[in-house]
Every structure is written in C-alpha cells, then in structure tokens.
Amino acid sequence: MEREDEIKSAYRNLGRAHSFYDGMMTGTSAAGRWILKHIWRMTREDALEYQSKAFAAIPEGFAGKLLEIPVGTGVLSMPVFQTLPNAEIVCADCSEKMMSAAKRRAEEMSLRNVAFRQCDVGNLPFADREFDAVVSLNGFHAFPDKEAAYREIFRVLKPGGVFCGCFYAEGANAHTDRRTQRAKWLRKR
Predict the structure, then answer these.
(1) How many separate domains does the chain show?
(2) In terms of C-beta density within 10 A (0-12 exposed, 13-18 middle, 19 or more buried), how is residue 171 classed?
(3) Which of 7, 48, 97, 101 could potentially form a cystine with 73 if both were Cys, beta carbons 3.0 to 4.6 Å apart?
(4) CATH number assigned to the domain comprising residue 174
(5) Neighbours of 162 (CB within 10 A)
(6) DSSP of the chain, one letter per residue?
(7) Helices 3-12 and 44-54 meet at what angle, rounded to 10?
(8) Would you state the torsion angle of the CA atoms of residues 60, 27, 103, 137, taken in this order, to the nearest 10 degrees?
C-alpha cells in the first residue's frame, strides 16, 4: 500500500467525533460536512485527500523525532501516528484543553511513542536542530506572531529535515476569503 493510501485508510477509520471541533475537522458530523461543503467547498473525500497530502512528506517507516505544533485534539494526526510506531513524537499546543483532548485520544489509541508539551510556538522549549520533522496542520492562522512561529519551527528542525503541513492561505480561494473576512467582521462586533 502506498503511503498516501495508508494515511487515507487511517483517516477513514476514525471513530465517533470527540467534539464539535473533531467533527468539523474530519467531516464526520452533520455540522462538519456542512462546513466542508459550504465554507471549504470540499467533500469528505476531498478532505481525506487534503489531510493525507499534509503528511505525504513523512515517509513510511519514519523512525526519527517528530514535532507536531499545534496538536489541537489530535484528530488529524493520531491516526497517522499509529502508522509510525518507531518514531519519537512530541505534540505541542498552547491550549491546555486541546492538549487534554489529544492526550485522551493518544491513550484510547494506545500510542506509547507520543509525548505532550504545552508551550508557545513563538518560544519553543526545544534545542536547536532537535527534530527530523515538524508538522503543523491548520494552526498557523491561530499563531499570534507567524514570523516568530516560522523562525522557531526552523530553528528546532534539523538541516535537511521535513516541514509539512497545511493552512489557510489568503488569496488562494475567493470563496474562503469572503467567509474568513465575514467571520473576522463578526468577531469584532
């Protein structure tokens, strides 16, 4: 089985969503499917494709040290981490609530090679060149200082290491830009 197919298979086997956030991120709830369709203009299959591509640079059998920041609830990464039993994985997030959900998910999935660290991406508590890979899924929009986040991620990444992830890019999709601008406007009110 090719790596992309292996990752898609891991996502298809996701169980019941733990929260509204999980259902939204995976399209496993009615609200999540609505958001995929109307906000992102994607089907569940499109989302599986998108998510698998976010991890495509992490090779099958990866056995190095990997940092995921932010981990969120782990709904997007833990299924893939199950396919990496020889990797040393550190999941980081500034949100204690998200980290608690991710820890529960890792325990439910019997993941023994995953550690958790609450921290700020703008000031990572890791050594220079500590990680072989860094993954960041749908989190950059939440980082208050994106330049500091990039600096820190590339500081802790080994030369020649892999940085992969996905995030909203303004200007890439006019429909999404309109929705995002409306959401920002509503939050300010």
Answers:
(1) 1
(2) exposed
(3) 101
(4) 3.40.50.150
(5) 18
(6) --HHHHHHHHHHT--S-SSHHHHHHHT-SHHHHHHHHHTS---HHHHHHHHHHHTTTS-TT--SEEEES--TTSTTTHHHHTT-TTSEEEEEES-HHHHHHHHHHHHHTT--SEEEEE--GGG--S-TT-EEEEEEES-GGG-S-HHHHHHHHHHHEEEEEEEEEE---TTS-HHHHHHHHHHHHHHH-
(7) 130
(8) 60
Instruction: Specify whether the CB–CB gap between 124 and 154 falls below 8 A.
Output: no
Residues 6+ apart with CB under 8 A from 72: 21, 25, 93, 95, 98, 101, 102, 137, 138, 139
CA distance 71 to 116: 9
Name the amino acid, one letter, at 120: D
Q: CB under 8 Å to 59, separation ≥6 — which residues?
A: 3
Write out pLDDT tens, residues 127-183: 999 999 999 987 777 788 889 999 999 999 999 999 987 665 566 666 556 655 655
The pTM score is 0.78
Tokens of 154: 């590339």
User: Rounded distance, CA 153 to CA 151, Å?
Assistant: 6
